[in-house]
Amino acid sequence: MSTTRRQAAVLLCAAVLATAAHASPMFTESSFSQLRFLEGKWQGVGPDGKAFFDEYVLAEPRLLRSIRHADAGFNKATDSSTVALQDGEVISTWGPFTWRATSISASKACFEPINAPSAFCWEQVAPDAVSVTQRWTGADGKEASFVIRLTRLKP
């Protein structure tokens, strides 16, 4: 094999390995179903100190809906977002923002931004408690984070 062909083969292999290293994890319906730890009605307190009320519903085997409600009566939706499995990727969408799942387990799901200002993880920390951790880089270039605890409300 000539030197040129050998160099081309090495470059091709390097490109394939680099692409594989940056590829998104492939998720299945089974791995997506692990998000069930989020199902239910939750109360949290936002960074502004105000209570909020979220409901997570597995609407379809490949679609989780998050619905924000005005109060604990869960009768008036004020906002919503989705998490969907499509072509092996799990994408979270809220308005114009999108995130891609990097990992999903029976008690934790983490997402990195596609078109969003921060990354986030949901983590079940007790049977009726989930922490939501947001991470971002501040204007000063330093890593910053904020954790919100959600408490499951009894039906």
UniProtKB/TrEMBL annotation:
Signal peptide stretch: 1-23
Keywords: Signal
Keyword Signal carried by entry: yes
Protein name: DUF1579 domain-containing protein
Biological classification of the source: Bacteria, Pseudomonadati, Pseudomonadota, Betaproteobacteria, Burkholderiales
